Every structure is written in C-alpha cells, then in structure tokens.
Amino acid sequence: MNIGKAALAAVRGLGLGLLAMLGSLVFFIFSVVFMALSLVGVGLFVTPVVTAAARSYMGMRRRLAHQWFGVEIKTPYKPKPEFQGGVLGVLERYRWIMKDPATYRDLLWMITDATAGFTLAILAFTLLFYGPYGWVLAAGVWYPIVHSGGGDWYTFVHVTGFGSAMLAGLMGFVYAGLGVWLTPQIMKVHARLDASMLGPTHERELQMRVERLTETRSDALDTQAAELRRIERDLHDGAQARLVAMGMSLGAVEHLLERDPEKAKKLLSEARESSSKALTELRDLVRGIHPPVLAERGLGDAVRALAMALPLTAEVEVDLPGTLDAPVESAAYFAVSEVLTNAAKHSGARRVWLDLRHENGMLRIMITDDGQGGADMSAGTGLRGIERRLGTFDGVLALNSPAGGPTIVTIELPCALTAPRP
Amino acid sequence: MRVVLAEDLFLLRDGLVRLLEAYDFEIAAAVDNGPELNRALLTIKPDVAVVDVRLPPTFTDEGLQAALQARREVPGLPVLVLSQHVEQLYARELLADGSGGIGYLLKDRVFDADQFIDAVRRVAAGGTAMDPQVISQLLVRKSRDEPLGDLTPREREVLALMAEGRSNLAIAQRLVVTERAIAKHTSNIFLKLDLPVSDDDNRRVLAVLAYLNGS
C-alpha cells in the first residue's frame, strides 16, 4: 500500500522533473528573451503569445498539483480586458501582461522549478529507486562490472567484490525504506513550493475578493431592480386594475340599485368576482416575493411544501436543527424551486430526492432526479440566474448531469445556523 | 352553536362575528392572538372553532399549531382553519389524526356566505371542508398514478367535490343531477380506487382524502 503510494509519487516526481526541463526552463528562456527583445520591437508582438503559452502550461501545472498532490492553487492573473483590433490592440495586450505582477512571479517560479523543483522531483524519484538498484548489484550485476575493470560506488560503498556487493544490497534496504517513507513527503513539499509561488499573493487574493464582491453586488442590484420592476408591473396590471374595475362596478350598482335591481345584482356578483381574482393574483405575487410557508415554517417545511406540489414523487430529507438567516433562506428556497421546476419540465424524471443539511458552517442542498440527464448550465435559462443570485451570498451551484442521467445539483451556501424557533 | 373565533385583523374579525351571528351562531370568544386562542379552545371547548393560521405574537403558524394542540387534547374538536394561502403540507397535518371535524379554506371563501356557513356547519357536525385548491393540487399530483387515471371526467368531478367534504345530496344539487346518479358514481369511484365502501358520509370523505394524501 505504502510502497505503491511511494512508487506513484516517485514516478510523478520523474514526470515533474522532466516537465521542469522541457516546460519551465524552456518557457523561462523564451519569456526572458522576448521580454528583452521588446526593446527592439519584436518582443512587443511575440511576448503576449509566449506568455499565453506559458500561462496555459502553468495552468496545467496547477491542475497537476491539485490532482496529484491535493494542493489547490488559484489562478492569480488579472482578468483579461477587451482589446481593440490592430496594432493598438497588440500594445494593449502587451501592457496588460507586463503590468500584472503575476507575470514576474511566474518567471521566478519557472526558474525555481527548473532548479529547486527539478532537484526535489528527481531526488524523490532516485531515493526510491536507488534501493532496488543496490539489490540488483548484490544479485550479481556487480560481477560483470568489476570484471570489466569498473568499480561502481554505491554511495560510500566501493563495490569491488562479493562482500562489498552484499553490503550494497543491505544498504539498498535502508534506501528503499527511506524512499517509501520520504518520497511522498518530498513531493508534498514540491507541491507546496509550487503553491507558494504559482498562487496569488495575499494582496492579489484580496484584490480578487474585491473584484468578486463588486461583480456579485452589481448582479444582486440588477436582480433586485428586475424583481421590483416585475412586482410593479404585476400590481399595475393585476390587482390595481381589478380594484379599479370593482370600484366602477360598485359605482354603477349605486346608480342602478333602484332603477334596475336585476342588473345591479349582476354587477355586484361581477365585483365580487373581481375581488376574488385580485386576491388570487396578490396571492401568487406574494408567493413569488416571499412564500408564506417559508415565513411560517422555515426552509425545511417550505421545501417539503414545494416537493408536495410537484407532479413527481419526491423524497425530502432535512437536517436543519435551527433557523437560517432570512435572506439566505429565501435565496436557497428560490434556488431549490427553480431546480425542481427544471427537473419537472425538462428532465423527464419520475422521482426526485432532496437532501438539506447544515454542516461546517455551510448549508448544503443536494437535488437528485432520475431523469435523462444532459442538462447544461450554459443552455439552461434558470440555472445561471440562480448561480448569480447565490453568488451574492458566496454560494455556489454545481451541476452534474451526464447524458442518460441521473442529474445531481448541489448548492452550497456559507451561513450560520441559529437556535431553533420557539 | 358556540363558536371560538381567532383572527388578528380587526375588520375581518368583526365581519366574521357579524356574519356568524347573522346565521344564529353564538360567539363564545373572539380572540386575536395565539396564547389566548389556546386558552379559549381548551376552556370553552366550543362546538366549532374558526381559526386564522397566522396570528400574533410570532405571525408564523400559531393558529394552526393551537388548533392541532387542542385537537390532541380534545380529540375531534371541530376546527375550521382559514388562511390567505393554502398548503398541502398543512392540509396533511390537519387530516393526520383521521378523526374528521376539520376544515381548511382560503379566506376568500367567506365571500360566499351561504357556502361558508355550510362549511362551518359541516365541520361542527364532524365532517370536513377542504378548499377546492387543496383538492385540485392533490388531484394533479395523483393523476399520474394508475387508478385515478381510470376515472371518467364526471367521476373525477364527483371525486373532487366529495374530497372537499360534500355529501351526495350536495354534490347532486351542485351538478344538477339526481342523488341516485351520484351514488352510482361514488360506488364506481370506490370500486376503481379500491377503497372500503361506507354509508357514512364523513367516513367516506376521510377515506378519499387519505387516499389522495398518500404518496
């Protein structure tokens, strides 16, 4: 088990060692050369191209660090602005790259990877495979070496005959043991080295946070404004208009009461119908703003009520021993509602499973359906909107929907859980 | 008949009191909050209670909770719950004890005084009065399933009215047919849905609701 893990780490070390030479070193040289050539013009055009290639190489290295060693490294670059066409655009592109501090940190990382990174990676590889090499010597390979006039050194053991070859074999066990123990750790150190230089600086991280907050705030304001416009329109065209109609009917009734009681009676029943319709419309509107069951019972029961209204068989599992902040609750509710609507409309599902729980300061909602799958964030209308709304609360939505199903939507919202309702 | 009334909006409470008194009900208590409703239900034990779901002090579902609590202590205590919105979830909770004497209606239903009073009387007599909206939602949800899909449109119509809590006679008047025709429809429905046949109206309604509520 451990041996397998160490062997895997060692092979990965060899891979990273090769990459350090073929990737990091080469890109370092190209980058430096063309940045220097900017002084004579050529570099202005070529630097952006080389940098783009280098960045995609480093993107690959970030992913490898995550996949192989579980170290997550964020991308630190400034967002790409809109460029004009022609020569001006080329200059803008050049400026964008050269003004990003991450470009220089990348250079530093590339040369570090080609030196320290390379050394660590190859050390991890050789440490593990040096042990077996000692055994190979002891097993008889020493004989042809010594007899062809060579005298191999196995670290400090000079292999000159049977005795020293056996000693090398014994030493091999020490190295193998050390290798099994140390190789994965050396590679972990390697990954941390990558993380410290390939990731964003503290300053950049704060900057990215500000960028994200600015974006989500503007999204939030947009959705809010759109919501208010919708409510205004619904009231104007719905309840308000009905009340006007009612007022007119009642006015006419007053007029007709004595002259034509039959007609008056008919108008009265019309007025009552208008009031009924106005109430229905207001009820629907209220549901869209803040569903009463959410206000009365909280998220768990509100989602249960949603599930009951579905034309699907739904199973709801709720583990929320307390109440959530009202805004978070509402965002989560509408997200679930939208996902369920999608499932009922497009997926062809017959069953849906909902799981709501709060753990590690995070509200986690999982919605699974047995539909045909193949749902797509970019094609779907609602999912992007939900993602934006959840973004305001630093929440995320993940969609997993392979063709053939099942579709799993996971929603995560950081939030606190307060004491249960009385 | 003695009524306990719980409604926090003065205008509505006043209107309901006048409406009920006009139909010879005796208002034993008219309260505007949850705790007082709790007390009134348990001390007065009225013939029927008319209760708003949302009441002070928390403006959540205090009225509903008070009604459920009182029915746990006085089984079968007739309660008609009124609300601005109807939820299947609440309907299911109200029906859970299976003992009848339960109503759950939208507040708008008060507009039609005769129908409303009929519902109050039905609940007081141990029957049920479910809002048509609750029933239509239940029917939509259930209609994918086999037995319900086998019903003729007329039978579905009768089933919906029956689920609201109406007697054969009332259904017959509503659909302008003879009571015997309705009796035939109901026995067909019970056969198709495989429900136990009973001559008792209330029992029959509860069986239908239990069937529709089952998942």
TrEMBL record, chain B:
CDD domains xref list: LuxR_C_like, REC_NarL-like
InterPro entries (UniProt xref): CheY-like_superfamily, NreC/VraR/RcsB-like_REC, Sig_transdc_resp-reg_C-effctor, Sig_transdc_resp-reg_receiver, Tscrpt_reg_LuxR_C, WalR-like
Instruction: Cite the entry's keywords alphabetically.
Output: DNA-binding, Phosphoprotein, Transcription, Transcription regulation
Residues that the record marks as modified (4-aspartylphosphate) are 52
Keyword Transcription regulation annotated: yes
Q: What is this protein called?
A: Response regulator
| Species per Swiss-Prot/TrEMBL record | Actinoallomurus oryzae
Response regulatory domain residues? 2-122
Which residues belong to any copy of the HTH luxR-type domain? 144-214
| Tree of life domain | Bacteria
Q: Which Pfam families match?
A: GerE, Response_reg
